[in-house]
Amino acid sequence: MVTNNSSNVIDVIQKQRDFFQTGKTKDISFRIEKLKALKQAIVENEQSIIQALQADLHKPELETYIGEISVIKEIDYAIKHLHNWLKPKKAKVSVEFFSYSARLYPEPLGVVLIIGAWNYPFNLIISPLIGAIAAGNCTIIKPSELAPHTSHLVANILNKYFEPEYIAVLEGGVETSQKLLAEKFDRIFFTGSTAVGKIVMAAAAKHLTPVTLELGGKSPCIVDSEINLEHTARRIIWGKFLNAGQTCIAPDYLLVDQKIKKNLVNALQKCLKEFYGHNPANSPDYARIINQKHFERLAKFLEDGEIIFGGETNPSERYIAPTLLDKVSLTATVMQEEIFGPILPIIEYRDITEAIALINSQPKPLALYLFSQNKNLQKRVLQETSSGGVCINDTVLQFGISSLPFGGVGDSGIGSYHGKASFDTFSHYKSVLQNSFWLDLNWRYAPYKGKLSIL
Ligand code: NAD
Fold it and tell me: Mean pLDDT score of the chain, rounded to an integer?
């Protein structure tokens, strides 16, 4: 079991550097063997994972499958494609370089650091780890201290299945993060808030360590009038109230065409009752807020508008009912900060131009949702807004598509992962140019006299 005092941090990094130097992690069969071991570790510990998430977040079993254990699909995807990803890629050369060949060789970076967040505390560690293993790196992991049961479980599982000189878990809070960030890594992969992302990037700059920052922000959800109302309501409610709204890509607020606002609100309310019953506090399918600090932060948001559904709270259980908030001012705190909880403000617009202008007046979001069957409107929103990703006529599921790189832009993040993007994130593509000996043209060699005219 690895502990996290300063000398241990340095010791673990050095042992990983030594292990990386042996070249073992570069071997493709080693990488595949470790990916298989990771899959086995998850399968064998499925029940403990469910229990840890239940203890940390009251996360329903189905949500743990969808949001955490489903990371296994990423392992299968990496195993299936790894041979192909590792092949050097040919690059074209122009005609005057006819005797040369150019290729791109992916190579591992070395020793990488993964720092996780608490909301999907298993997935957000394991998913980048898959990329780090596939790309041939050694990895140090710092899970979030705010989900302590999952943090201990991740440490126990990974320390049981892997040697610390290859994969090591260092548990702890901000202090442990700071000790790690003081050291040099070959990449830091951070998931968390934009504010802490800036701290991570500043620390990384001291060593010129490259960073991938998977951050947050306010992800808008536009609802046009040309929709299937029932499907729209179900998909919004599911994506928003999954994990009690504590999902980085949850729709943060709705921008609704005023023509359908009344009907949409009715459909959302009906759907909430169907999903969680008349008292969601008794529903086995509804999670809790991670801690008291976040509970209090969210409870204040309830004062920022008119509650038209929900609004009940219970501090001792850290319960906040799924809540719809109407008549919200754009200057209210709930519209200025990322909500990251089960409160959904509903803003209406008269013309899509207004909705686009509002989105563009805020930092670039991680996700943008659009419900509309109108092709021209879809095209306009895609062309006139910028976001990490877009999902049309659904929510959240873009996270689960391995062939779609996942990441933010601007304040919502730097870099991306999932599928091949994870492999690329933890690789360096080495450019290799090769000449042959059958020809050696004279044009570039001195003396240069008279040669300029050939060019
Ligand atoms: P956070 O930034 O508070 O913490 C993330 C990690 O950073 C934790 O491991 C924590 O120990 C560490 N940390 C905290 N303060 C630090 C400091 N001063 N110095 C160094 N390390 C520090 O984020 P969080 O509360 O765990 O997660 C919520 C945020 O993460 C939200 O903004 C959410 O949108 C975002 N998020 C993004 C994604 C994504 O994939 N883009 C996924 C999940 C969560």
Answer: 97
Cα torsion 288, 292, 293, 296 to 10°: value is: 80
Cα 87 to ligand 1 centroid, rounded to whole Å: 35
Distance 215 CA to ligand 1 centre (A): 8
Which strand ranges, in their side-by-side order, compose the sheet holding 101-108? 89-91, 101-108, 427-434
d(CA 73, CA 86): 20
Please count the CA atoms within 13 angstroms of the CA of 314 that sit on its side-chain side: 11
The pairs formed by 92-95 with CB atoms below 8 angstroms and a separation of 24 or more are: 93/433
Among residues 72, 452, 89, 120, the alpha carbon closest in space to that of 287 is found at 120
Q: What is the pLDDT of residue 375?
A: 98
Ligand 1 contact, 320 CB (< 6 A): no
What is the percent of the chain with per-residue pLDDT over 70, rounded to a whole number?
99
User: What is the ipTM for the molecules in this complex?
Assistant: 0.98
> Which residues are designated catalytic?
214, 248
What's the Cα-to-Cα distance from 444 to each of 116, 196, 441, 453, rounded to whole Å? Answer: 53, 51, 8, 12
Would you place residue 3 in the very low, low, confident or very high pLDDT band (cuts 50, 70, 90)?
low
- Distance, in Å, from the CA atom of 266 to the CA atom of 399, rounded to the nearest integer, reads 28
pLDDT of 1 reads: 45
Q: Whose CA is nearest to atom 7 of ligand 1?
A: 192
Dig out the tokens for 36 from the structure.
């298989």
Say whether 296 sits in a helix, a strand or coil. Answer: helix
